[in-house]
Amino acid sequence: MYRYDEFDHAFVAARVEQFKDQVERRLSGELTEDQFKPLRLMNGVYLQLHAYMLRVAVPYGTLSGRQMRKLGHIARTYDRGYGHFTTRQNIQYNWPALADIPKILDELAEVEMHAMQTSGNCIRNVTADHFSGVAADEVADPRPFAEILRQWSSLHPEFSYLPRKFKIAVTGAEHDRAAIQTHDIGLHLKKNEAGELGFAVYVGGGQGRTPMVAKKIRDFLPAEDLLSYTTAIVRVYNLHGRRDNKYKARIKILVHETGVEELTRQIEAEWQALKESDLKLPQGDIDAIMTYFRPPVLPERPEGWGALAAAKKADAGFAAWVDQNVTPHKNPDYGVVTISLKPIGGIPGDASAEQMELVADIAEKYSQDEIRVSHEQNLVLPHVALADLHAVYELLLADGLATANAGLITDIIACPGLDYCALANARSIPVAQRISERFGAAERQAEIGELKIKISGCINACGHHHVGHIGILGVEKKGEELYQITLGGSADEITTVGEITGRGFSSEEVVDAIEKIVDTYLGLRTSKEENFLAAYRRVGAAPFKEALYGPVSRAA
Amino acid sequence: MTIKVLTANRLTDGEVVWYGADGQWRETIEGVSIARDQEAAAELEAAGKAAMGANLVVDANLIDVEDRGGELYPLRLRERIRISGPTIDFEPRRKPAASAA
After folding, report:
1. What CATH number does the domain located at A303-398 have?
2. Domain Nitrite/sulphite reductase 4Fe-4S spans what residues (chain A) (predicted)?
3. pTM attached to this predicted model
4. Which of A328, A354, A457, B18 is buried most deeply by CB count within 10 Å?
5. Which fold has domain A6-110?
6. Class level of CATH domain A425-549
7. What is the distance in angstroms between the Cα of A359 and the nearest Cα belonging to chain B?
8. Which tens digits make up the pLDDT trace of A297-335?
9. Most A CBs within 10 Å: which of B10, B13, B83, as the mutation test of the A interface?
10. Are B36 and B72 in contact (CB under 8 A)?
11. Angle between helices A532-539 and A542-549 (to 10 degrees)
């Protein structure tokens, strides 16, 4: 894992001191709210419905046991005993007092963490495939490049006041688990025929009120050009992105209004001026960062094969969990464990202080001291020996963390919604809970198969509803919550924006509507192997609309 | 007109507060100062601005409420949730009972 160098320590410490002073001046009245608000936002501090909220960055979703234990400690000491893992691989605390936040940042700095650039119109925390470095299908670990981008973008003077926020995601596998095409810049790390590393570069993806799928502007950018090319993109955006209208300020609108070809031309022209500058990455620097992400030396554990088979035979619950939540590791003696933060009827992404501490302990003992946060609001133990899976399962089970539902209908993404969020128009969490309860039976989930439901409580789409196989968007209509349903979205290597089915549903109706959609799918799929998305892509919206709204009269 | 009350978040900890009839900010809506006409609403608005200026609260807003048999009922769900807190069982439960197996 990456360790802060002297420069990292110094700038994080300086920033904590600076913010401490700003908070003191705010509390003493020396700074007004108008003066303070942009400063607090640069440090991840929002004001929500009931309290302040602090969003802490988890760079590319990677944590050590010590860091996770600190997150639990903060939850218990300064908050109400829990935290919420987000769709950007971050963690949010819902109840910190403003006066305590400098102390929290001090504690985070102790474990090389911070809350910078988790909000505001800057380059946000760079996200990555949560299976980076371990997935059997990966070409190369993209996190060294995410770290290079983190260093480059942190407090970048030119890019601290962009027209709007700017999100970058990286993946190193053909199968995209990082939703790169829904980001301002999406980077797909791959190798060319000569075996050299480079990136396919996507620009202009985003969700929110104007969802757009990113456009590929380069098929292979040599790795050494990562920073010069990214700088060129962000510079063109900074110059020409709209500042007159908040809703048209993201780079996706610039791509749309300028046209991909013309914008690519501008980026390439800018890049020509930068290509040979000091932004060109020396191989030595890339290698130095890569050293931090070298895969751990994993002892051979071949005894796990037999042990696993025997344990599965003896324990049906364990077998179901292994089948659903453990995915192949590059090393066949090991597995990648998804810890579901979606207990049936629970709150997606929430974890208690005790749960965080337990995960920290397990990671230290059984997963090479490494944990990941996924954008699907789950946690991941990346290196668990097959021989240790049963022990890990038993520990997780005792604290409600062994729900065997990764990728199933109850593995729902949901934003905090109107239960917490000052921007929301409707609640998300209770809808997720009711859907989870409706479909919670293990046999039923297994029968339905892979199905991603994503719920947002407003058009800002933090719950990624546009790219849910089934998306749910909460709106407010005449003082009531109303839920619009979209179908057919996806955020993988074939990213699509879901289509709205028609009129929305009341809070009372929405779970029944989801059930009708699911039953319709079950009735029309060609076989169990045809998952919901594949079936939807084959038949289109019509059968689902008919199930929801009744037959459409066909005029002759 | 609908009646209005003044609400905000306390500066130090973000706690939801209402402006009381006694001129103090309180943590419950009971005993809140109620504006039943334009003039009273303007006074409340001024009190909100003054309190923000004095750095006691942030985000002070007048909200619409109905008097339902003596109980104040905000018209927007958002404001009702600000009174009740999250509508979900949000604080961590105790550890679940050990598996029956």
Report:
1. 3.90.480.20
2. 119-272, 411-547
3. 0.96
4. A457
5. Sulfite Reductase Hemoprotein; domain 2 (3.90.480)
6. alpha beta
7. 14
8. 999 999 999 999 999 999 999 999 999 999 999 999 999
9. B13
10. no
11. 100
